[in-house]
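Limitations
The structure tokens in this dataset are predictions for the assembled complex, not deposited experimental models. Users should treat interface geometry with appropriate caution, especially where small molecules or nucleic acid strands are included. An illustrative entry is reproduced here so readers can see what is and is not provided.
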Amino acid sequence: MHAASIALPARHRAQLTLSDVSLMRGATQVLTSVDLTVTPASRTAIVGENGRGKSSLLHVLAGTLAPDSGTVHRVGTLGIAEQEMSADDDRTVGQAIADAIAQPIAALAALDLAGAALAEGGPGADDRYAAALESAEALDAWDAERRVLIALEALDAETDQTRRLAELSVGQRYRVRLACLLGADLDFLLLDEPTNHLDRSGLDFLTEQLRSRKGGVVIVSHDRALLADVAETIVDLDPTPDGLPRVYGNGFDGYREGRLAERERWEQTYERQQLEHARLQDSLSAAQNRLVTGWRPEKGANKHGRATRAAGLTQSVHRRQEALEAHAVTVPVPPQRFRFPELQARAGAELLTAVGVSVAGRLAERVSVALSREGRLAITGPNGAGKSTLLSLLAGKLPPDSGVVRVQPGTRVGVLSQESSLPAERRAAELFEAHLGQLEASGMLAASETVGLSHLGLLRSREAGKRVGELSMGQQRRLDLAMVLASRPHVLLLDEPTNHLSIALVDELTEALGATQAAVLLSTHDRQLLRDTEQWPQLRLEGPGDLDRDLGPAPMSVADARMIR
Ligand SMILES: Nc1ncnc2c1ncn2[C@@H]1O[C@H](COP(=O)(O)OP(=O)(O)OP(=O)(O)O)[C@@H](O)[C@H]1O
Ligand SMILES: [Mg+2]
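Predicted assembly:
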């Protein structure tokens, strides 16, 4: 490759600028007059309720989605980690790495060629060599592969370069892709919910990389710990009186405070507007009354005088009517409020127990767990330790290789899986109703126990009418949660419940989980959620450690977490 065709980072000249950008998706106006500048010094986060347009905004910045109006300017190189990952990526891990560092590889190849030409001493060889060297230096090309390998290692990602991405789990694929991006030395990194698939050490590595990198960062995240550690500027897409997004400085705290103040101002303005509206309304009514009484012929009044007065009164009514119509009242959009249904405690010592369960290659330890009424348990552990496998065992979705799982008859177990997998073509409300119908038909739930979708405050009716494929990732996950809660479970098994959900909903969910009478088992990496549930008993799965998962039998360590209240 000729040195000139290699895309070099623009470094301090790099910039992403959006001016007056607006965008519709389907029938929804998602972005309205967004102005945003991202520089290599930016640590910008985009937040907002699920479905507000955070992913859409990231795609507009990246150039993968064209806005309906407004302008986008890009100077420099960028990489985006999308919220969704396609499962049909034919590449191997090695090919993904080669693609991520294609520019440095090309720069080194060009340098080799230029070096050979220099040795032959052809005309212009000096200049070409100097140019090739400059490109390779600009890309720090010699170090590129090492940077990706370090990131793969630190994120505990697959390092076997012959493995195909399609054969990896979503989490493993995600980590390979993130490592490639972190190692690629781009001017800008655009990351959509990057923490969903990372464990504690992966999160620490990501945080450190984002804080120390020289290029700009734009993250979309619900992860309150990451936002607090990394974000300096926060773009909030939630509704405002003027319909424009708000930009807050001073990090996550600045955003929390600023947002609260903004909301209070809006509510105060609304109160003033309502008072003014009432005054104008009264004034109009009074004028209308005067007009009516003015028309009534008074005894002895002369006809001509009455007519003149009537014209003045009519004008006065019109003036007041216009004033009332011109007086705008912006009603603060009420935030969606999550209503956790009342879940009944179920009598009985142990509702759900697993004794010495393990699955070859997936859950190495033999684990025993007992959940009784109102029991709580948080499962932690590194990626690959078998947390999701344990939940699948408890949910009866997977048979154990050793041990047994017992459920007390009649106990309803609700399971929220790590990733949403609802059929894209079906409408949300339709799926929800079908789910309730099944529960009733199977005798698991009485008709009197069902909860309506609108009651839960997870999806607005507009969204409930959409097909799953038209919902944002968080909205799909809200539907998953709604279906789990509608089954009125006695035991809740939640696998990474905060993934994709908005900050406000995570706060509400955390509070509800603390208070519910149902037994709750939670598997999570969310550092804030772990802090908020630190009084819960914890079971840490260590995983196979250094043992290769294909070698030898599982280690025989026994973890026993018993929580009976
Ligand atoms: N393919 C699509 N077709 C039609 N509408 C879509 C499509 N994808 C998204 N939308 C709609 O556009 C809006 C914004 O979606 P977007 O994915 O940008 O939201 P988000 O803020 O990233 O949400 P989340 O927090 O759930 O990830 C949503 O209301 C969604 O329903
Ligand atoms: Mg999104």
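Some entries come with short summary sentences. For this one: The first strand starts at residue 15 and ends at 25.
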